[in-house]
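Example record

One chain of 354 residues, shown exactly as stored in the release files.
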Amino acid sequence: MVTFNCKAITNAITILPNGKIAPCCVIKENYSKPIESWNDTQRFADLKVEGTPSPCSQCVKYPKNSYKSFFDKFGGPNLQYLDFRNSNICNLKCRTCGPHSSSTWAAELNLEQPIIKTDVSDYLDQIINDGVREIYFAGGEPLLNADHWKLLIKLIELNLCNKISLMYTTNLTITKYKDLDIFEIWKKFRKVKVYVSVDAVGLAFNYIRSGANWETVDKNINYLLNEKKVDLSLAYTLSVISVWFLPDVLSYAKEKKINVNIFQLTDPHYFTLNVLPDALVEKCVDVLNKCKQTNPEYTKKLDLAISTARTNDDQGSFVTLINNILLSDKIRSESLFDLLPFKEAAIEKVFQHQ
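Predicted structure tokens for this chain:
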């Protein structure tokens, strides 16, 4: 039996909003360590076991090439990669998200402490001095996170920015913070990879990414397409509510000559493709097959989605899905339900016992 030796165990740290750290963001949420263990080189050594450690099962169950580049990308004993997601502050209430990752979601639910945040002020010097060469910013919304801006400014002041590559997952609805402009700051770094969260276009985008405005995001995308240092892709979350708009997203991306990274949602479970009732499965498969015909480069991921939809082993959660959509529509004065092909199936499932 081979000892599990993902390089993230020794070479990466993910800063979580709850005052803790983990080797990556894919690891199960119940595995983390206090941020005070940052300086302990053996902080995640308990993951070096024979076989696959249980906290890492979420990663290795995916196709082998999904995380291989991350698994193998680091060398040496030092911290090289930082995943910076220390706050849930966000200006949107995306339908497949929740209060754990969005302060605006939490405020809508009247939670006592909508913003959760890990104080990193004592660790900024260590981040910079530990030889980090790549920083990934996520959230929440990283471009609203004050600590994100502080870290970038410090890297610039110390003339280290030209040695560091940045990577983002962002809703790209905002680009400025106080008197700072992210477009100008990115020009100073070695290179920047930006994944823009786009699950639909137009009105459907506004509803799925509740609080966003498609025209604003489209404008910012167009600006970045002319920036040589920025490598821009769309991050598309494939879910039971977004799959119907995938043809529009792929058409938009093809027109703009942008790559689309398709991530199949696994949580919350009632937004996954396998909740579809029998009456909707083939409609979903038809959409995915048409996308394959026009965009064969995505065949592998679309085939995986087709397999998930045809499994439909969680049909019992379809009513939970419908309740979630309709309640969010009511609270937010939106009409996502009207854009989805769910009405007949919803009526059958909701009233079938009456």
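Notes: The chain has 14 helices and eleven strands.
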